Amino acid sequence: MSSSISLPSRGDTAEQSETTDEPGSIAPVKKYGTFEGVFIPTMLTILGVIMYLREGFVVGNAGFGGAVLIIVLAFTITGSTALSMSSVITNIRIGPGGAYSLISRSLGVEVGGAIGVPLYLSQALAAAMYIFGFREGWQNLFPDHNALIVDLVVFVVVFAVAAISTGLVFRIQFLIMAMIVASLISVGATLWGDGLDQPLTFWGDFAGEGGQGTNFWLVFAIFFPAATGIMAGANMSGVLADPRRSIPVGTLGAIGVSFVVYLALAFWLAKSASPEELLSNPTFMIDRAAWRPAMLAGVLGATLSSALSSVAGAPRVLRALGRHRVVPQGTWFAALNRKGEPMNAMAVTAAVVLAALLLRNLNAIAPLLTMFFLITYAMINTVAFVEDRLGLMSFRPIFRVPRVVPLMGAIGSVVAMFIINPLFSLVGVAVVIGIYLYIVQRELPAPFGDVRSGLFLAISEWAVNKARSISSTRERVWKPNVLVPITRNHSMQGCLPILETIAGPEGSVRVLGFATKENTLVAKRVERVSSTLVHAELMVSDTVIEHDDPRRGFSTALATLEATYTKPNLIFLNLHEDDAEEVTWEVEKAIEHDLGVLVFETPPEGMAARIEIINLWVPIPEVIPEPGAALGLGDLAVLMAYKVALNEDAKIRMLGALPAGADLDEAKRYLGDVADLARLRDPELEVLTGFREDALEAAPDADLTVMRIGDWPISALPDRVASAGGACIFTRDSGHENAFA
Q1: Which of 184, 212, 317, 350 shows the smallest number of beta carbons within 10 Å?
Q2: Are residues 582 and 640 in the same domain?
Q3: Got the DSSP string for 582-594?
Q4: CB atoms within 10 A of CB 739
Q5: Whole-prediction pTM
């Protein structure tokens, strides 16, 4: 008896299947090809009610040339978006959810969700608007039929068809496609009559309906929604046999055919009627066609097919959002029935559409729906541009487009938004940003990789190159980037609170362990220190260097770090009485490599639970200088006291030992000048007499004392800690710090 195991190919995940929620409980779902799965739904969505009832308005206002320009501009935006989408889709294994899947796989779940949620609502509410449109056409035939009853009947029919199966939706759309083709043939049949006798008006006077006047961009805004709908096929990505091939081929094919149809109809309209007639009769195309019933059937079929596409696509977007927990109760939304249909998501979508129908009027929010579609298009183009611009090895699409295409599509989408409705554009952007911030704070796990890290890396590389080109000193941009070497067996845990305070929140910490093959404890200590600092939300990196001679490894590491742009500027050392010689050697090496030095030590009883008072010792020179003079290797101590006080909300007490023969008032003035130039927050000032050691013992108690090492040997520092009566930070400047900058 033998058994075999089928392994997924590389990159296969549950994202590629509509039926992976409950293995074994769902029947295999039929997959669909390019023509029925993408081309027909996209084509039917583009060739909609605007073609029948509003293209005459466009030609009547703009003339044939103006109408062609409007059509070209609209299709340029959506065509660029389709090309960008095709490029990205041929580079990934797109999962269910169409645009949501595409965006989230590139820019992360947060950005994908911020676009996907309003996109879902737009598609659901668009279904209600299409039902309204169907009812208006129906009432032209049967004016006595009750509007609400017609809406509800169509609602039930549309959702019943979608609930039975996706295949039934596609089969009905074949029938609707035949009806639209018949209506276009009915238009074309007039070419053999004597109807095309009007002189061609190349550029119209934009008279507007009723002679009220309009302009080019308002006419463009009315026409533009006709060119949208390019996501109808992409939204069905989860039920396509080969979405990577079908979506680009089907979408681009539908756009190309639709573009030709709109241009041909613009010419027919311009030659069939005067501008005045086109503006006064919205149903001119229906009235002039060779066979009026075919045109009426086309109008009704166009609205019905658009409603079916929205009802079939919207639940799948919601299901994809549920799979990644972008929406609450995600598991429930993501469930499929035994036929593989997203019935829970469909039920919620039905409730949204029904509520919209009962409101009876969506005109107030209709522009907002268009904004959400345009934001989606802009983001798709942005994804394509960013991935291409980053030059990542992972971006190798089978269908590659010039970089100018997504750039043009993104700019065009944004421009179109603000041309159509500036107010709703701002509202749409605000909604997307609000959803993004909400998703970010939920910290959702990403089920796939994205390119955000590459984007940030590219930005950082650009910034580094620009910063290197600036020759000025970096005193104004100095911040603590701390190197923490771990070479000995004692613990660093008692030092971590002060290290977090020094480095956080905008600094960084680099933990380096130096160990021999026999010493495995160092690696464990590095891991513990790094993990603790990461939980404190610091920027942390760690490495363990194995070397037979830890000192040589330490020297090599410092020399290597010299070549990095973001090299550490401070070294943090923990002082113990039994390793003063080792710390002395490390201090000397740090000075050789231009690093500032922090030596930290606590008394035997440990450090105070909270730092409330900081004693900052500032050396007072024998000859008091004029205000503004440099501190003279005391800058790092001032900066460290300030940083700790800022993060701990502590009070700084500035202390100085009065040199022999110095004037007390002049010494106090000097401390005041230092405090003022260093911009410290209202410190206490106190000058003590006597030698430094005596003054240290006489100083008021504090939770932390900060002072420069000066001419004290490292071996003498434990005695200074005992004299200070609390934790101490001893500093040694590198010369690159400036407390007055």
Answers
A1: 212
A2: no
A3: HHHHHHHHHHHTT
A4: 24
A5: 0.70
